[in-house]
Each structure stands twice: as structure tokens, then as C-alpha cells.
Amino acid sequence: MLLACSGAQAAPCTAVRVGYADRERVPYYMGNGAEVPAKPGVLVELFRDAFRSVGCPVELVRLPMARVRLALTSGAIDIAPAETPVDQQTGYLIATTPSGEPDHRRALRTMAYVFVRSEDHLPADTDPARYFKTHALAVNQGTNLALHLKAAGLQVDDGSFSSWNNLDKLRLRRVDGFSLSLMTPSALDPYIVQRYGQQVTRLNKPVRVASMWLGANRNYYQRNREQVEAVWNWIGAHGALQLEALSKRYAGSP
Questions:
Q1: Are residues 81 and 151 in the same domain?
Q2: Residues 222 and 102 in one domain
Q3: How far apart are alpha carbons 156 and 166 in whole angstroms?
Q4: Backbone conformation region of residue 107, classed left if phi is above 0, alpha if psi is from -120 to 50, else beta
Q5: Under the phi-then-psi rule, with left for phi > 0, alpha for psi from -120 to 50, and beta for the rest, what region is 250?
């Protein structure tokens, strides 16, 4: 059993198992496959910092995207990025208010921005939710974003797992845009410029705004409630600023 930690005075903790996707999502998850690279990614470092704040080391577990939620629900991992649970029977919990509603102040805000070809000269203020009802929008395969955009009536192409493959499809005119969830609007911009120069640009308005939670397996939470609540509080207090600082560091910005 993992011990509930409250800082330097608490007993040493067994490593908490944090699961996340084994596909690269620059700059949040770096590299592909089960191996965790030396620079694992912005979100991975944020997870480590959050648990370090309560004195607990992190064991990172990379899984195929479709297995992350199953592993969280079953208890094969303890913590993972998650959306709002569908119902009370879901095997994981998120930060909630005293009344039991999702506590968005203790979540990470995500914005699905859209990248388009510069040569198409789309106005920067184009509304992607309208434009991509009649134009093809690439989204990474297996993501919740793809499900939400399809449900909203957008023309979604989610045939590829890779952001770079989808951006290549955009460049080759096989789709008209590419969208993925970002936590700071410019997080991907330096990598786009490095790879594509000025061929690709980003629209100003996100196509979807949502919350990403640090979900906790239900049984793990019940055994370690104080520890998990402290981590959620840390996310609420420091998550956004820490993400911005980490994103700049990964991009090589001062």
C-alpha cells in the first residue's frame, strides 16, 4: 500500500504508478514506445513535480492510448490523465468541489488549436468549428478530441497516430487542417517552425476548450486520500505556471 504523504515530515512513499500514452505528443510526451527518454516531456515532468511536492517518487508507465483508461480503472496504474468520469461507477476519480461537481480550478485547461497551410491565406480569426464542417480536419487517432469533434459534426480524419504524419498530410493537401489539444497556445509553434518553416500557421481560436484531470484509481484514492488531494491542490495552485515554464524550457526559450 502506498503511504499518504504530506511533505518532508511524512514517511517515505512507495513510487506511485503514473500511466500515459506511448505515442509522442510534442512537447508533452516525448518519444515513442514503452521506454521513457531522459527528457520525457512537459506533462511527464509536471506529474513528477506534483508528486514530489508531497514527497512521493513516480514510476512512469507508458501504454497504448486505448489501454491507459482501462489500466487506471483496473488499478494496474494509480494515476493518469483523464476526462470527467461518465458516472459514479467509473473506476477512477477526479478533483471535485465540496458539492461533488468537477473542480475545474484543480484541473489543467486544454485548448484544441488548429494548424493550417499558410498558402491558403485563411484569416487568423477563422472559426474552426464552422470551417471544418465542410473541410477535412486531421486529429490524432485514438484521442478523445476526435470523438468530440466528430460528435460536433466536423469532418474529422483520425487515421494516423502521429502529429507529424498529420502535419505532413496537411502540407501535402490531403487534409485542410490539423488539430490537437495544447495547454499553452504556442507550445507546438517552435517545433512547427523547425520542421516546416513558414508553411504552417495556427488559427487564433481553438476548436474546443476542455479540462484535463489527473485521475486517480478509485481504490488508490481511498487508501491515499490526503496524498491525492494535496497533489490536486498543487495542480490548481502551480500547474498552469509550471506548464508554461516547462514548455519554454523544452523549446529552448529564455
A1: no
A2: yes
A3: 12
A4: beta
A5: alpha
